[in-house]
Amino acid sequence: MNVTTINGIQLAYRDEGQGTPLVLIHAFPLSHAMWEPQIADLSSNLRLIVPDLRGFGASELGEIPTSMEQYADDIGALLDSLGIARVALAGLSMGGYVAFAFLRKYRARVTALILADTRSGPDSDEGKMLREQNARMVENQGLKPLAEQMIPKLLAPNASTSLQNHVRQLIENNNDRGIAAALRAMATRPDSMPLLATIDVPTVVVVGTKDPLTPPSEAYTMSAKIPNSRLIEIADAAHLTNMEDPTAFNEGLRFVLPA
Ligand code: MLT
Questions:
Q1: Distances in whole angstroms, Cα of residue 202 to Cα of each of 76, 172, 218, 251
Q2: Does 172 map to a domain?
């Protein structure tokens, strides 16, 4: 794991392989480590830049409140520190929200987009209330109850016990304050729907057919609005498609990346 100081915090990241740069942006409430199956398979011809967003994994949280824009600014600053001008971006779920924020601010730096198990709309009022409830639960009780609540939604019912345990471990390795801050940051994220029709880079939208958090209907809506995008459904996977079926996920990425 590498560490760099950017935007007033120490940000941890992996930088693996050589070739076209691809940034992998993790989901909530995980860390860069959810991308292990992609690092293992794709770093032979891609340069994978895989950060822990601020407040996750080994990255410092910095000042709160934070925002999707701040996470995107951190990625921009990380790329500057590495001397990388333009990248392909892959974001899963909250990682997709960060990818939209990056696109809003740094459009000229994006060469291709992978939007996995994510949505473009903002939270409903009820959704915002639930975020606040969960933030308080994490602050008062730690990450175990959040992991219990989320694992059945992140993984399909037939996921192996070892995958469930691995995901639980990744969640519980996080820091309560960082996770509470991310919940509040997601609640205040802007509507990214107006962006969709303006996306003019090769784009793949990926979804697990059994995803209860960002269901296939969300993916159809996004893909229909993004000119020339390709939709890939991963059968029998739920939300963490890249971990549940890495082979299908990695093949999907190839549609917008060099072979
Ligand atoms: C994620 O996987 O990043 C979260 O489910 C996103 C969300 O809660 O909106």
A1: 20, 35, 19, 15
A2: no
